[in-house]
Specification:
By secondary structure, this protein is an all-alpha fold. 66% of the residues lie in helices and 0% in strands.
Length: 178
């Protein structure tokens, strides 16, 4: 059992390293320089050099990879070029909305899907069983984002039963400050 766990852990670490390496290479293949995101149009060569030094894109590729991998190992995801806040804080702020929405969507899906699936399976020979079965197949075939937009249009914009946007009141910065 111990060898199995050791082998699986080594496989996990090798997979993570491979995925991180692939991500690094793909990010470097993108056109442009990360320093360009920090600068306005018409920046001087001195400003470009300073921004490249700030982002580390002036270092040799091997040094960039080592620094990037080290930051990743420490879970330091860097600073957002847009908000100038740590990326980890940006992610955790969005998780405060994403996690409850995901859990609510999962609970709603289970509460609706189990009875509908039960009726569709046990009454497949009836018209409503076939209708429920066809409706569930349609739900699988249609892209989720399209269904989401359709539900927002119907329940928020047309029927005005739910809000169209926003979740909890943001703490800290106001929307106007963004």
């Amino acid at each position: 059992m111990g060898r199995y766990l050791l082998r699986r852990t080594a496989f996990l670490l090798a997979s993570l390293l491979l995925a991180a390496s692939l991500l690094f290479v793909l990010l470097r293949l993108l056109p442009g320089d990360p320093a360009n995101a920090l600068l306005p149009m018409g920046a001087t060569p001195e400003q470009i050099a300073a921004a490249r030094h700030e982002t580390g894109s002036d270092l040799p590729l091997a040094q960039q990879y080592a620094a990037w991998l080290g930051d990743l190992a420490r879970l330091d995801l860097g600073t957002s070029y847009i908000s100038k806040l740590p990326v980890g804080e940006e992610i955790s702020a969005r998780l405060a909305v994403t996690v409850p929405l995901t859990l609510l969507a999962f609970a709603l899906a289970v509460v609706v899907a189990l009875p509908v699936g039960f009726v569709a399976a046990h009454k497949a020979d009836r018209w409503y069983g076939a209708l429920l079965s066809g409706f569930s197949q349609l739900g699988i075939a249609v892209p989720v984002f399209w269904i989401g937009m359709l539900l927002v249009t119907v329940f928020a914009l047309k029927l005005r039963l739910l809000p169209a946007g926003g979740f909890p009141a943001r703490t800290g910065r106001s929307r106007a400050a963004r």
